[in-house]
Structure formats: C-alpha cells, structure tokens
Design brief:
The complex is a heterodimer. Chain A is built from eleven helices and ten strands. By secondary structure, chain A is of the alpha/beta class. Chain A has one domain: Rossmann fold (3-Layer(aba) Sandwich), CATH 3.40.50.300. The chains are: A alpha/beta, B mainly alpha.
Chain lengths: 299, 311
C-alpha cells in the first residue's frame, strides 16, 4: 500500500516539549535461545520501563552492556513487541496496524555504520529505496529529496555511485543518517551511532545530529556508553541497569546530582576526572571533547 | 568490457590453462601406473612376440618421455588417440556418449537447483515452521543416503512394485526419471544446506534489520538484499556440483545401465582402454575448470566488491 508523500504530522504547530514517543510500564524478555552473552550476564529482561521522548529534544539512554539499551531501541522502532505495557507515538497507542506508517516517522541510526549498509548495493540506491517503496513519487521529486538528504549530512553526489566498502566509517554513518532523513522523520533512534568511529569523526557526527535536531525540530533518542557524548547532545537522560530504569531526569539533575550509587560509579568511571563536574556551570556541565561545539540552548 | 574486467578475465584464463596442463600430465602418469594394457587386451596366454608386436602397434614400446611428448602433440592437434577396444578415435567414442550424460546431468542439476535452493530459503526464512523443519530433515536424509542405495530403493518401488518406470536403459523420457531423481537427491541436499546457512546469515545482518526499520516489506528485502548477498556461496556450491556432474554420474549410470560417459568410463578402466579413459578424464577436468572459470566470472557479476579486490 502506498502511503501519502508527507506523513500526517506538523512539526511547528505542536509544543516542542510535548511527548512524541512514550513507553508505559513496558516489560520484555528474549527467548533463552536468542540471548547474547551480554544479555545473559546482565539479565535480559526489561522491567516496568517508563520513558518519555519529547518533541524536538534529545534524550540520552546510558547503561552498561546488557542493560537493555538496544532492546529499548528495537521496541521503539517496532522491531520487537513488548510483552506487557504500551508504546505511544504522538499520543496514540502503537498497534500492529499502525506500524507501517509509524516506521516512516521514526527512523534508526545503528552502531556499525558499514554493517547497516547492504555491501553490494550502491549508496544512492540504498538511500532512495525507502522513498521508492513507500511513496508514489515522480523520479524528479525522488532525486530532489536524495540531493537534499545528502546535502543535509554534508556529503557530495559522488558518493551515490560508490559501494559501502569504498567509503569511510564516518561517511557511512552520514549515509545512514541521510537514509533516515529522506523520509522526513520526526524521531531518530540512534543506537550507539558514534561508538565505532574515531574521536574526530565522533565529534563531526555529534555536531551533525545536534544541527539536525535544531534545524528540523527532530527528536532524538541517543543511546551510548559514552557519558560525555550523551552529556554533550542530550537535555534529558535515562539510566538503565539490568533492564530497569534506575535514574531519569534532566541532564543537570542526572550528571550533577546523581541519586544512585550506580550512576555515581558510572560517572567515576569516565576518564579525565569525571567530566569536569566539579568546575562545570549548570548550563555547560561537561568537558567538551576536541571538535565538539557548545550546544545552543534548547527551548 | 572495462579494462579491469578484461585483466581479471585474462588472469583467470591463464590460470585455467596452467591447470589443464597439470591435469593432462597427471592423467598420463596415472594411467601408466595402472597396469599394462597389452596384458589385459591380449590375455595371459599371449606370447612374448605377440605382446611386443602389439606394444609396438600401440606405441607403448617407446620411452615414456617420447610417449608423453607424442600425447601432448596429439592433444594440441585435437586427437586423443585411438581406442584400443573400439578401434575408433577415442574422443569420438567419448563424444558419442556425451549427449546422454548431458541429458541426465542437466535434468538432475536443474531439479537439484530448484529443489535445493527453494528448500534452503524456506528452511532459513521459516526455521521453526513445519516447512522449515521438513526441509532441514529432508536435507539430512538426502546427505546421508548413498546414491546407489537410493537408486535401488527407487527401482524397487517405482519399477518393480508399481511398474510405473523402467529399471534401466535410455529408451524414453521415462527412463530418465529415476536416474535424474537419484542424482538430484544428494546435490539438492548439499545446495539446501549451504543456501540455508547463507540466507540465514544474510537475514541476521544489520542491513536487513535497518531495512525492516525503514518500512521496507519483507519480501522486497528478501529479493533485493538477502538473496543477492547469499548468492555467492550458493553459486560456489552450484559450480562445484556442475563441474563434478560429468564424472559424478558414474554410479547412477552404472546402476541404471544409462549408456553415458560414466558407464563408458567404468568399462574402459576395466579394459585398460587408456585413450578413452584419458579422453574422459580430460573432458571432465576441462568441464570442471571451465565451470570454475564461469563461477569466478559470475562472482564479479553478482558481487561488485570482487572487481576491486581482484585488482
């Protein structure tokens, strides 16, 4: 079934802080046979997860390996269904019959950028595929959207004819972001989007995500091990431990005044003396890795 | 044709030619080690004079190096010698049996490719369903049952009990059914197993997960991403099966009395008919090399990455 070209949403008419994606009392566990080693060690069950991602905001999700971060990403992408609880998108309950339309408005950016690209299909075809499949669009419109998407992520048209093994990891992650943007989504679910990249490229991708959030009013769920990246990009942070939320709140609340020993231990484990929290001001709580800019204040 | 592709093509052909020369030499040496053909052809009662005269007639009294050079010279001229038994050009004898073997192997491989690839895809896509489990069990059975045993069982059921199909010969298409099914059974099991692994691996990859998350329908993902990525290992196995099919039909042809090259090979080895055996081995080896060459070239078509990795 072909869906309308523009999803039925309006970016600007809504209050920028209202919930766009919400998990309510969500439980989930993998069948024993499909658990990864990290899930077995960390406990593979998500228990009573309540989380709200607000329109136009960047929400950070941190926790150790096996804590369930990527499972939450899969739930929010509709790739797996909760055992109990509900997921709401834009105030409406997410049901199987709404998944197709939902997937166009919530797009993923995965951890290993090269692995997320089909190795034998040219980049241009991969970026444009979701558009061709989901919308009845003229070729000229598709090409215009393609050009806009790659321009938005700072790539040139030369890359479109290349294969994934002919581009760098940073370029591949930009391609993945362009592929998500071409559908004009409202939410990006970024599952460890910079962990496979070197420091300089990490900074470039973080800045790109920050700019896109600003310019397009995108909501972001940013999942990462790296507390400094989360602190740099996100205004709200949720901390996960063995499938349960142990702490959640604004960036300043969670990073400057952690309530749990677990969060304190995570902060202490950060290299370079715990993010510079002793000297940071509330508006700029964290030390900025090289190449990262100060974030513009969020509304 | 682009320059890179031409270069790859030329390099692969050069390698294939070297392999042919090595194969021709090996065949010559092995056949000389397999026993004296004069003794077999004349019998134990032949006198020394008769044996010497016959050896001279066949050129077997010359030094081994001279025989080898003459053998190479004849191959270059397109002659593989005269059959000791049929008293005809050995290549002509072999080629007269080739159409029947090609009919059998093409039928069997088509059947194996269709059934094996379909079963492998079904087992990978629906691993927990009845279809998936049935395909998995079927492939194990196909791999475990020897072809001579399966041939006898099929003959007992369909020829002797039900009287639907002939037990042997090559009189009509009905004679082809049982040998083709027997040959296809093991090949399809091998193909199904490799196809299942390749498709499963592709289905579990990140790019498939990313495609799902982008709202691309499952069947489109399967056709446009999963199967093209799984095609390379499947093509490799198919290439090996095709290459080996010419000689792989020996057991089946013998059991079903199918008058093809496999049957001729068994008879010629027994008769020490060296020129015919050499011609068959040369033909089978060349078929294997040509198939491998075609498979290598198929890689560059199926997987564009191989173009840049080769150069």
């Amino acid at each position: 079934m072909a869906l309308p070209i523009e999803p039925p949403h309006v970016h600007t008419a809504r209050a920028s802080s209202e919930p766009i994606l919400e998990l309510r009392n969500v439980d989930f566990s993998y069948p024993a046979a499909r658990r990864s080693a990290a899930q077995v060690l960390g406990g593979s069950r998500l228990h009573k997860i309540n989380m709200i991602i607000r329109r136009g905001k960047a929400h950070g999700l941190i926790g150790e390996s096996g804590s369930g971060k990527s499972t939450i990403a899969k739930l929010l992408l509709g790739l797996i269904a909760p055992e109990a609880g509900q997921i709401f998108f834009d105030g409406e309950l997410l049901t199987p019959d709404r998944l197709a339309a939902f997937r166009l408005r919530v797009q993923p950016v995965f951890q290993s950028p090269l692995d997320a690209l089909d190795p034998i299909t040219p980049i241009g075809k991969q970026i444009i595929a979701p558009l061709l499949v989901n919308f009845k669009m003229k070729s000229s419109e598709c090409q215009a959207r393609l050009a806009a998407a790659i321009s938005a992520v700072g790539l040139s048209g030369e890359i479109l004819g290349k294969l994934p093994h002919q581009i760098s990891g940073g370029q591949a992650q930009r391609v993945n972001i362009a592929r998500a943007l071409i559908l004009h989504p409202e939410v990006l679910i970024c599952d460890e989007p910079v962990s496979a990249l070197d420091m300089t490229v990490q900074a470039q991708i973080l800045n790109l995500l920050s700019d896109l959030r600003e310019s397009r009013g995108l909501s972001l769920l940013f999942i990462s091990h790296d507390i400094r990246s989360v602190a740099y990009l996100c205004s709200e942070i949720t901390v996960l431990k063995r499938g349960s939320i142990v702490e959640s709140g604004s960036r300043d609340e969670v990073l400057l005044d952690p309530k749990t020993g677990y969060m304190k231990s995570l902060l202490e484990a950060v290299p370079n003396s715990g993010l510079g929290l002793q000297t940071a001001s509330p508006s700029k709580p964290c030390s900025q890795p090289a190449g990262r800019r100060d974030l513009p204040a969020e509304g | 044709m682009r320059r890179n592709t031409r270069k790859i093509f030329a390099s692969k052909i050069a390698r294939a030619l070297v392999t042919v020369v090595l194969m021709v030499t090996s065949v010559f040496v092995l056949m000389r080690c397999a026993g004296d053909p004069v003794t077999v052809l004349l019998g134990p009662d032949a006198t020394a004079d008769m044996r010497a005269a016959y050896s001279g007639e066949l050129g077997l009294d010359r030094p081994i190096l001279a025989q080898y050079l003459a053998y190479l010279h004849n191959i270059v001229r397109g002659s593989l010698g005269v059959s000791y038994v049929y008293r005809q050009d050995a290549l002509g004898v072999v080629l007269s049996h080739l159409p029947l073997t090609l009919t059998l192997t093409c039928s069997a491989l088509t059947l194996a490719a269709l059934a094996g690839v379909a079963a492998g895809i079904a087992a990978a896509v629906f691993p927990s369903s009845f279809i998936g489990r049935a395909c998995t069990v079927g492939t194990v059975v196909g791999l475990c049952v020897p072809s001579f045993f399966l041939a006898i069982v099929l003959m007992l059921v369909f020829s002797i009990q039900l009287n639907w199909l002939p037990t042997g010969g090559a009189e009509s298409w009905r004679s082809l059914v049982l040998p083709a099914v027997t040959m296809a059974a093991a090949s399809s099991a091998v193909l199904a197993r490799y196809t299942r692994v390749a498709v499963r691996e592709s289905l579990d990859s990140r790019y498939v997960l990313a495609a799902f998350a982008r709202g691309i329908p499952f069947w489109r993902i399967l056709i446009h991403h999963v199967l093209p990525n799984a095609a390379v290992p499947i093509l490799t196995i198919l290439g090996l099966l095709i290459g080996g099919a010419v000689t792989g039909s020996t057991v089946v042809e013998t059991v079903f009395s199918w008058p093809g090259i496999g049957n001729l090979f068994v008879t010629s080895v027994g008769n020490r008919d060296i020129p015919v055996v050499q011609a068959i081995v040369l033909l089978a080896g060349t078929a294997m090399i040509m198939t491998n060459l075609a498979v290598d070239l198929g890689y560059t078509w199926l997987d564009p990455r191989s173009k840049s990795s080769e150069t």
